[in-house]
Structures are given as C-alpha cells and as structure tokens.
Design brief:
Blueprint: E1 6-8, H1 22-26, E2 38-39, E3 45-50, H2 62-79, E4 84-86, E5 92-94, E6 109-111, E7 115-118, E8 125-130, H3 144-161, E9 168-170, H4 171-174, E10 176-177, E11 182-183, H5 209-214, H6 220-226, H7 228-247, H8 252-277
Parallel strand pairs: 3-8, 3-9, 4-8
Antiparallel strand pairs: 1-2, 1-7, 4-5, 6-7, 10-11
Helix pairs in contact: 7-8
Length: 286
C-alpha cells in the first residue's frame, strides 16, 4: 500500500544530501529556499470512470442496470478500489473511509502551488463514476443524476477539507508510467470531463506537473485520442520544462535527465519509508 506523502516541490528534504540539497537553492521548481517537509494529510480529489459493461440508461433496462450495479459495488468494495462510487442512478456509495487509503491511484503525480504529491492512494480522495469516460469507444454520457451527485459530493469534500479548485482533477491528468517515463498511462476522463458543471475551472488547462517538474514525456497517440482540452496541459507542461532548462543553462535533454534523477531518488526515499513503517510478522513495526 502506498504511503501518504505530500512533498513540497522537488520533494527532497534539504538535509538529505542524497536527495540533492542544491535543488533547494537553485531549482526553478522550488523558489522558497526553505526546508521541505513531508506530511500525511488528505487533500485533493480526482475522478475515475469504472470501465464496466454499460447498458443504455433507459427505463426498459432498469433491471439490468441494477443487477450490474450490484456486481460492480461488490467488486469495488472487495478491492477497496475507491473512496466513493457514484452509480448510474446517482446514488453515492462510500467504499473506503476518507481517512484510509483506497487502491485507486497506481503510479501517479500531481502538484499545486505548495506541494507535490506522489502515488496518490493516501493523499487524494478517489471518486469513480459508473460507466466509461467521455471520448472512449462505447462511452455513455453521465446521467443527470450522476452529475448532480458528483457536484454535491465535490462541494461537500472541498468544504470539509478546504480543497482548492485546481486540486480537483481526473485520473488521466495524474497517471504516469515510471518505466517509460510517460504521462497519461490511464485515460480516465482524458477529455470531456464536466468541470464547469461542477462549479470548477477548466483544469485541463493546468500545465501537467509530471512534464514540467520531472521531465516526463507522452506518447503522441495520446494527443490524437484525447483532443485539444487534455493536450493543452501537456503542451504547457513542456513549455515550462524548456523555460526552466534555459534558466539553468542546460539543454532540454540534460534538464530532463536531471529531473528524472530527482524523481528516482524521491521514489527510492518514499519506498524506504514505506518499508520502515511496514509491520513485522509479529505485528511490531520495524
């Protein structure tokens, strides 16, 4: 299970030489110059789609819809897959307590004006909508009941945890693949997410943190599949990466390699902490 770390930009504790002290002084991604801390709190929200078989939302399909919904609910509970599930009828099911981790994020990365977030099972609340996300083959639009329920749930969670609007994002925006260093490993709501209907700004316009902060790239086919809204964040993230490389007097390739090495060191440090906190067979924390 992923550890609940929220890490200030560049994510290295200043005293940890192996996490690159120099970044605290010179990294364009960290202008504070102060010691960076690791915290364990819940903050943002991101939204998934459950890629299950979807029947048309019609009155004559009610029995099938309810049966499918029961199987889906049982599955996500068994897997502790999300914190909340919203079914086609707009019913909101709490799957995992907000104080606990849900297995919803995988390899993931996000950043706001204060923190960088890694592997978001703990630090993000996962909300899933029954159905396929917009833009995917065979996708069904959200029902009006789902949209209303999602807006009410989002407003409640934002009020309870003081969640900034920019930290309400989709799985596609945070998903990464560390093995090939590409963003957008999962496509959940890579396009067509109804930010405006939830009273949120168009967060597709946010520069992708995985690109500008740690030098990730993306498969060009992702642009073709998602369309303009999603790839604007990719393009803007790449632009910031180039600006930061220039500010450091480095080529884009050199700077990307530098940021990749920082990312690897952070993951290694987080893994060490997770292993140190894992109970021994006797139930005693090591």
């Amino acid at each position: 299970m992923d550890e609940p770390f929220q890490v200030r930009f560049a994510a290295a504790v200043t005293r940890q030489a192996d996490l690159c002290d120099a970044d605290a002084r010179h990294d364009p991604a960290d202008v504070t110059g102060r010691k960076r801390r690791i915290q364990k709190t819940i903050n943002p929200i991101f939204v998934h789609a459950v890629h299950a078989f979807v029947f048309d939302f019609r009155a004559d399909q009610t029995t099938r819809l309810k049966l499918l919904g029961r199987f889906l609910l049982r599955y996500v509970r068994d897997e502790r897959a999300y914190h909340y599930l919203i079914d086609r009828f707009g019913r909101v099911w709490r799957i995992v307590r907000e104080s606990d981790a849900a297995n919803h994020a995988g390899h993931s990365l996000w950043a706001d004006g204060r923190w960088t977030y890694f592997n978001l099972n703990w630090s993000f609340l996962g909300v899933s909508l029954e159905g396929r996300s917009a833009g995917l083959s065979g996708s069904e639009p959200l029902t009006r009941a789902q949209l209303l329920a999602l807006r009410q749930l989002t407003e409640m969670l934002r009020f309870r945890y003081s969640i900034p609007a920019m930290n309400c994002v989709t799985h596609a925006q945070v998903s990464v693949n560390p093995s090939n260093r590409q963003a957008g490993y999962h496509y959940d709501w890579a396009t067509g997410f109804p930010f405006a209907s939830l009273g949120l700004p168009d967060n597709y316009q946010i520069p992708m943190p995985s690109l500008w902060l740690f030098g990730f790239t993306y498969d060009p086919s992702l642009v073709n599949r998602t369309g303009e809204p999603y790839w604007k964040g990719l393009v803007l993230g790449g632009d910031i990466l180039r600006q930061n490389a220039t500010a450091r007097g480095m080529s884009i390739e050199q700077f990307r390699a530098h940021r990749a090495s920082v990312y690897r060191r952070i993951l290694a440090r987080l893994k060490e902490r997770a292993e140190a906190a894992r109970p021994s067979p006797e139930g005693v924390f090591q």
